[in-house]
Amino acid sequence: MSTPQAVQTSPITGPGTKPVIEIDHVSKEFADFTAVKDANFSIVEGEFFSMLGPSGCGKTTTLRMIAGFETPTSGAIRLQGEDVSRVPPNKRDVNTVFQQYALFPHMNVWDNVAYGPRAKKLPKEEVAKRVEELLGVVRLSDFATRRPGQLSGGQQQRVALARALVNYPKALLLDEPLGALDLKLRQGMQLELKRIQREVGITFVFVTHDQEEALTMSDRIAVMNVGNVEQIGSPREIYDHPASVFVAGFIGQANLWVAKVVERTGSTTTVEVAGRRLDVENDRSGLQVGETGTFMVRPERVHIDADAAHPERWTVAATITELVFQGPVVRYEARLADGSTVVAHVPARRDGLPIPGDVVKASWSDDACVLLPGVPAPTKSDTAADEA
Questions:
Q1: Cross-sheet strand order for the sheet of 74-79
Q2: Residue 1 lies in a domain
């Protein structure tokens, strides 16, 4: 296993700058397995913060430590400056919404939402005020007398959100709450969650393995991998300027090629990739001459043309090997002269699109290129070829 790179963290540019949750060099071990390794970041007031990564990356364990369901092996978790690392869940001013909403089936919507403030023995007038307000925020005022069994999955989720928010916690923790919904409903609820978070102004901490969810809703994202926080930044920063090969490959799709540095001049790095030399402007990789890294271009930045090369682009001949219609775009795979593959996403509305077997020009502009430390993991086909 490679040594993780230092975490790249962007400046906080969300709704506030005052930390609500501080993860201070937190690690969590289970027997001989380390689930979270020295996580160190803050989440600010009013922010929609997502922890994103594949199964087993440590994101849910981190959320459970914030909630109080797990205790850090080392480090500290602070809530508004107070160390709550050993404070039980019911004593922390945070609420959690899970994938299973756990609504009371014998209670109607109004009573489900009222459960929390009633348990705190708030005055009836205050309970009614809060419930009516939150039902309005989640757009379920007309469903107050229905029971959970009479609601759709999306409506049940909004009831769970209202119930979790009605006591106005310092933060709302969401553990993959959209996972049980179908695709269309999940996409709609992404926008609803963002709207609700903006209206109530409470910090949301969202755990997901779905990159679309994180990119759609988040102010900032922490990308995690095998217990490490690899990068924290805005959705655009993480997509356009990933800090590692893992982040580049996990967020969206990316063309990743092995590249060797042959020259550095100021912020411009010249690399050898796919049998050609080209410049990478504003290089942040830190790679030195003679070192090997990864050259990245997103598929939507790749142009597929049959005509002559564009002078403002780096261009190479390629042979179309596969065409997949994906609605608004056509996904192309093409093979370069050295045997490597380039993937391009081309608008489907174009006329005269090439077909498999056509020789085309694959090109992209200089500002589409990113150089990263480390090398891409071998593909299955590469592994099979090595074994053969």
A1: 33-44, 19-30, 74-79, 82-83
A2: no
